[in-house]
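[job 4417] fold queue: 2 targets
>>> target A
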Amino acid sequence: MSTLLLIGAERESHADNLERIESAFLSSGWKVVIVSHDELTLDHGRLCYIRNSDEIAVLDTFAWIWVLGFGSRSTFLDRMQLLHTVDQCRFVNSIDAYLLYHNKATLAMTTLSKYTPDTVVSTNVDELVHHVHRGGRWIAKPTAGSFGRDVFELQSNDPNLTQILEHLTRNDYAILQQRVSTEREQRWYIAMGSELGAYQKVKTGLRGNVGATSSAVNCDPTDQERDMVRSIASELVDLGIRACAIDIAYPYLLDVNFVNPGWFQTMENLTGKNFADELPSLFDNTSR
């Protein structure tokens, strides 16, 4: 019997992925165990999740381990360091990916850079202002987890330019990205190098997050868009990211969300189909 360990908590999520993925794999005959992030325990050299004294999930007994969400900020680094000792081929998305690639900018430093708009990342307001003053239109936002919030379009003549960048860099790095056309911005879900499908975002202003102020409609992707997504999917697998949602506006890759992305519920609303049911066959007997 194929086995899957799901690590997460619905209360921390903007999506119903944990319940939806569990149901899909159970319906396909898999054994599925759900544990919470902070139930991770190292006991005499054995790494496991302990729900109570009668329920112990030992990591190296599962074919696949899927981490959904980050869990508590205070324990994140300890948990990631412990999980990093496990064979990374067992993880749907590797621990290295959680540590290195959640930031919107770091993927632009990989082989995916060829799809990325011109990007600047800094905490230095003067440096960011300098790039905006060079001309053109720029999108300024947090480097991770904005959910459609704190997204600004900036030009050199913006009277609030410095104040906006000071706000974004108050506690964190900010990212400046070349403003590109997003009239056909699409969100795709990809798993094990294969695409499940896509919807097109209908945005209000700059807001592209369906949970914020945008909505979604069915789309008919072009061959060029499909080819681009398939290439990105293959390269993400090489980076240890085997299941994620990506946002594209051909020929640009705008975002990669593998932590716990919204997609399945939106696609079901549009099509009446639960695409999570396609996941088990993609992970069953998959070469790693």
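>>> target B
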Amino acid sequence: MFSEYLKQFGWEETTERIYSKTDSDVKKALCAAHCDEEDFMALVSPAAEPYLEDMARLSRKYTLSRFGNIMSMFIPLYLTNSCINSCVYCGFHSSNKFRRTILTPEETVNEYKAIKRLGPFENLLLVTGENPVLAGTDYIARALDLAKPYFSNLKIEVMPLSTDDYEKLTHHGLNGVICFQETYNRADYRIFHPKGMKSDFEWRANGFDRMGKAGVHSIGMGVLIGLEKEWRTDVTMMARHLRYLQKHYWRTRYSVNFPRMRPAENEGFKPNVIMTDRELAQLTFAMRIFDHDVDISYSTRESASFRTHMAGLGVTTMSAESKTEPGGYFSYPQALEQFQINDSRTVKEVSDSLKAKGIEPVWKDWDASFDYQCMAQGK
């Protein structure tokens, strides 16, 4: 399991190796046909900052070669803000004295219909807080069943589940799972997640193994930028996690995300680092050069101008007109939200800005029938 594999990599040692990278290490990484972990550390290191334009050109080359001039579009739907965890940075913190919402089946369908009126979305991400009693596997399965008449590609971002539960949900239309480890610093993890199910580092870190064993088609991973001062170390640990998963579950498709912290209804917590746009661009280029095939996603946490600028340079998936409160599209538009979005453009505005750059928004890029066709052809 990954939590055991991770123990061989010390946090301080990894940090020292990143900051010891030199100009020649960066040049070597930029010339490598296939980068290893050492190359990735060089590309996210301070030594790579003067090479940002070179990295951008290389990242664009690999993105265009692998994905073409397209952007896969998705939209999240928060089903509930009920949560038993006490994550110190999150608006859903269990101690926040706000009315909690759990969408009923009827309200859920109303949200689906409202989303379809926004645009031709086929890629839906269902999101919940962690409340296994009131919004557990059966609740999620019901939401997936209700979504199938409206969307062709269904993913979830929920509490880590067992292998059996993930497998069960694949029979209800589940195609992908997104789960942020938040931070790979084992010591700090407990500080940021003091109570609740999420306080178990191993259970969360090993959840990706359980997804792979269950045969989940797509696995998304990420760290929350702002928790750790040394974000370069955190993303290096994630890169190692990605390679580990690709080796053990090679049939699975992978995506990564680097969300920067946004204001939430949780006074008192301040980010331990503020990542600049230039640094996020460097990280995005480094990840694309490190892995040509991984899907890189930007949410509406990022600004409109920055998302538009990065389209085609490494980013391959974006959300649009997102709401981070349950029922935000139709039922409860003023409910407790997880965080404030930064890009408030409409679906049409996002789509038009991409087309102006010669990038075609893609609303449907996967269907279960594709897998069936491949199996029939023996691929």
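[job 4417] complete. Note on B: The chain has a mean pLDDT of 92.
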